[in-house]
Design a protein that fits this description.
The complex is a heterodimer.
Chain A lengths: L7 H34 L2 H32 L3 H29 L1 H4 L6 H27 L2 H31 L4 H33 L25
Helix pairs in contact in A: 1-2, 1-3, 1-5, 2-3, 3-7, 5-6, 5-7, 6-7
Chain B lengths: L4 H11 L3 E12 L2 E12 L3 E5 L6 H7 L10 E9 L2 E2 L7 H7 E4 L10 H11 L6 H14 L3 H4 L12 H14 L4 E5 L7 H14 L4 E5 L3 H7 L2 E6 L2 E7 H6 L4 H7 L5
Parallel strand pairs in B: 3-8, 3-9, 6-7, 7-8
Antiparallel strand pairs in B: 1-2, 1-4, 4-5, 9-10
Helix pairs in contact in B: 4-5, 4-7, 5-7, 7-8
Family (chain A): Belongs to the PhoU family.
Keywords (chain A): Cytoplasm, Phosphate transport, Transport
Pfam families (chain A): PhoU
Chain lengths: 240, 268
């Protein structure tokens, strides 16, 4: 944080937002990690816990909104303060969405494990989740330190997640073609993979917000995109 | 849909800003004490320029240089050059009275003359020889009060004392009085600091309308006001011009730490 305001309670209010967001960030990270672990270990109890935790993020988002609106009304913030408050609102939304996606993965745990051998399929997902979680963790660090350089490098790295998601998509498609009995579980896993890929996108959004808060400039609109699944088709049976 | 002539003129002036007044290396001394240091600042035509900064930073001093109000202080000395339409206003040939008709001023506290509303308005035009007949005077009173957004409120009591109006109305009367002599530039020294929020809003609305026909320079202690009414903002500190730029940028992402600290309330 830059140096103190003449009115010290203003600083307390801004600190509250930062603290609340870092708590929310911690919860979001843990939810995603636990949801993926529950998927890997077929741990429905843990999945259930993740589902119930989502409420914490919903409340956090609302609290950040309320406080931000009050600060704007009371202090009429300018320049870096204004950017920080607007940034907080946006980051709270992104974190809340990350929580929703984590919750959605947790909800699919039971359905996925109706299949006999999901282990090997789940492994690819684990790697994707590791990358997304690293992004999320680092972007929270970038926010804590207001580092535009770190924010920018995180955004560049989203490409990697997209590439792995694309290859996972292809792999799951192959399993489904091999044996139609895999379709239920693979479809759920596909949604899980998509959710994790979306978490990476939210980390990217947060990185962009952090960059704006820190510099007052917007990053260029175009960012690396490597998700080709929107145009992917399965080869007709017997073609291979 | 066709753009109005005013809008066209405004957008044209945004593209190619005409410099109405230009300060070059302006320094001001009160006796041995220097109050302004080599200030270079342009005032664009048909726009509102806000001067901000903490008390004693020199913003009012600079404002008062623009129509040579500082001449009224014996120990005050101004160096450098200030031009109005490329003409040096400190040149010996300049008639200060005529200059102040071209560059009008509105002060912090409403200061109507202890005369009727009508007399307040016609006083200036009459001494400048701009009006002589009753019809001309009636016309200028109505036009000036209209432009200041006050006519409808006072039309039935034009011959009652100006001092009997509310604070906000008095300030708009002072603006009407400044407009009456058809100035080109209007200087405002904290014009709303003695007014309530509604009267302030009316004056701010007025400033925005006046911009179409006049060039306005306003000194204000309210950051929000500067952000609302001006197109350009200049930040002063300890007699120096710290930063000048488009208002939107100044209040969202200023270049200097000093401006940043001042507008966010982190000063000193």
């Amino acid at each position: 944080m830059p140096e103190a305001h003449t009115v010290t309670s203003y600083d307390d209010e801004l600190r509250f937002l930062v603290r609340r967001l870092s708590e929310m960030g911690g919860i979001a990270e843990r939810m995603v990690a636990d949801a993926v672990a529950a998927l890997v270990n077929a741990d429905t109890a843990s999945a259930q816990r993740v589902i119930s935790e989502d409420l914490l993020l919903d409340n956090g988002e609302r609290e950040v909104y309320d406080k931000a609106v009050i600060i704007i009304a009371k202090r009429q913030p300018m320049a870096s303060d204004l950017r920080e408050i607007i940034g907080s609102i946006r980051i709270a939304s992104d974190l809340e969405r990350v929580g929703d996606l984590g919750k959605n993965i947790a909800k699919r745990v039971i359905a996925v494990h109706t299949m006999a051998q999901p282990r090997k399929l789940v492994r690819g997902l684990e790697h994707l989740a590791e990358l997304a979680l690293t992004q999320l963790k680092e972007v929270l660090d970038a926010f804590a330190t207001r580092s535009p350089t770190l924010a920018n490098s995180i955004r560049e790295r989203d490409e990697e997640i997209d590439a792995i998601y694309t290859s996972l998509f292809r792999e799951l498609l192959t399993y489904m073609m091999e044996d139609p009995r895999n379709i239920t579980a693979c479809t759920h896993l596909l949604f899980c993979a998509k959710n994790i890929e979306r978490i990476g996108d939210h980390a990217t959004n947060i990185a962009e917000t952090v960059y704006y808060v820190a510099t007052g400039e917007q990053l260029a609109a175009e960012r690396p995109k490597d998700d080709e699944t929107a145009s992917m088709i399965a080869p007709p049976p017997g073609a291979a | 849909m066709s753009e109005s002539a005013t809008e066209k003129a405004l957008s044209a002036s945004m593209e190619r800003p005409e410099i109405k007044m230009r300060g070059t290396n302006v320094s001001v001394f009160y006796g041995a004490k220097q109050a302004l240091y080599d200030v270079n600042l342009d005032v664009r035509e048909n726009s509102v320029t806000a001067l901000i900064g903490p008390s004693g930073c020199g913003k009012s001093t600079f404002l008062r240089c623009l129509n040579r109000m500082n001449d009224t202080i014996d120990i005050c000395r101004v160096t450098g050059e200030i031009t109005l339409d490329d003409e040096n206003i400190y040149a010996p040939a300049i008639d200060v009275v005529e200059l102040r008709a071209r560059v009008g001023m509105v002060f912090q506290k409403p200061n109507p003359f202890p005369k009727s509303i009508y007399e307040n308005i016609v006083y200036g035009p009459r001494i400048h020889g701009q009006v002589s007949t009753r019809a001309e005077m009636d016309e200028i009173v109505e036009r000036s009060l209209m432009k200041a957004g006050l006519f409808n409120e006072v039309k039935d009591r034009l011959h009652e004392p100006g001092t009997g109006l509310s604070g906000g109305q008095q300030q708009r009367l002072c603006i009407a009085r400044a407009i009456a002599v058809s100035p080109e530039v209007i200087l405002m020294d904290e014009p709303c600091s003695a007014l309530d929020p509604i009267a302030t809003a009316k004056v701010e609305e007025l400033i925005d309308e006046l911009r179409v026909n006049y060039t306005i320079v306003i000194v204000t202690h309210s950051m929000q006001q500067a952000a609302r009414v001006s197109q350009r903002t200049a930040m002063f500190h300890l007699g120096n011009l710290v930063e000048e730029g488009p208002t939107e940028k100044m209040f969202t992402n200023p270049d200097t730490k000093l401006t940043q600290d001042y507008i966010t309330g982190r000063f000193g």
